[in-house]
Amino acid sequence: MALIVQKYGGSSVADAESIKRVAKRIVDARRAGHDVVVAVSAMGDTTDELLDLAHAVAPIPAPRELDMLLSSGERISMALLAMAIHSMGFEARSFTGSQAGMITTAHHGAARIVDVTPVRVREALDEGAIVIVAGFQGFNRDTRDITTLGRGGSDTTAVALAAALDADVCEIYSDVDGIFTADPRVVPNARKLSVIGAEEMLELAANGAKVLYIRAVEYARRHGVMIHARSTFSSGVGTFVLGPGMTVPAGVEGAEGEEMEEPIVAGVATDLSQAKITVIGVPDVPGKAAEIFKIVARSGANVDMIVQNVSAAATGRTDISFTLPKADASAALRALADEQPQVGFESLVHDDQIGKLSVVGAGMRAHSGVSATLFEALSAAGVNIEMISTSEIRISVVVRGDELADAARVVHTAYGLDGDTEAVVYAGTGR
Ligand code: ASP
Ligand code: MG
Prior knowledge:
The chain is 33% helix and 24% strand. With 431 residues, the protein is of the alpha/beta class. The protein has an eight-stranded mixed β-sheet with strand order 3-6-2-1-9-11-12-10, sandwiched between helices. A four-stranded antiparallel β-sheet has the order 13-18-20-19, sandwiched between helices.
């Protein structure tokens, strides 16, 4: 008998029928003899609808009240799920984040979990109940207010509960079958992985893969939680995200006992959410990059890739390009334009038609030629590379946004990642 934490995303509990289907899955795990704790997201697009409502009554909703509002989405789904389980003859008890002991920082809308004290969860489990916890929310001890963890925060709720309860596995259910070698919507013959290393998963999530949220993967790695990403719509085994020393538990058909292999390339991630800003004609003297990026940081933008050109000897000036989330671009541009006279650059160019392609694999550390394969594949496909950046286990390039999907397909093939069949894509959001 194991202790299993399960997380169901909004698309898995979108309506009454789906809630009943999820309830049945939970009851099946209970029938198999396991203790079950469930973290649940708000139904379907509830969170977006609540956000729209808030903005319809106030241009800038008060953060405290916004968290009161948004946290209600998960209260609806948790109570309905518990009722559905009751009607199947099983005991279930729902708890809000604060009742479940999710203690967070005071930062409304982006609170971080600082402690988990699941006293009531334990009591309910000891009394034989299935426990349902509202995802995405917590409580701050100083302000005594309800907080939310940021969009997609239910993954983190589940992982944090799994860590605090020392669960055997944290199953994260969504509308995709697991982690693929690429987004199957972009690369149709992407393969589902049975295992992936936590650090590779982190790099993929940080570079555009949407199946798991980066903060949840990070929390899992730090606290030694094994994640099993799988689909609500099929009973098949999904993908185990393994930290150092973890192996897939016994009895898992098709993956039992598997450990982390170190593939040279585990997967390809694509990201259309970034924009590029080029600062043209920057005086090529010490301190200018520092000035520019201090201004950008103050605007609140989160810079990703940076490239500086070789300066033209004749002018003593250079160009500096960087990428950042599209949503941060206008604030960064405004901030830079305001200080143009002091910094002394010539002009700014904003480009929001870029795409970022990343290849990730822990085996890269030990193998050479990985980047050559990438560049060759892109060149054969006639795709121009605009920027390059690397980490120990990742190579990323910026290309034209409308060439990103083609680029992902040729690169996927070049690394031998193609599967024999087309991946099943359920209609949905990938959450
Ligand atoms: N309901 C929240 C959201 O849509 C949290 C979650 O789904 O994980 O962002
Ligand atoms: Mg949601």
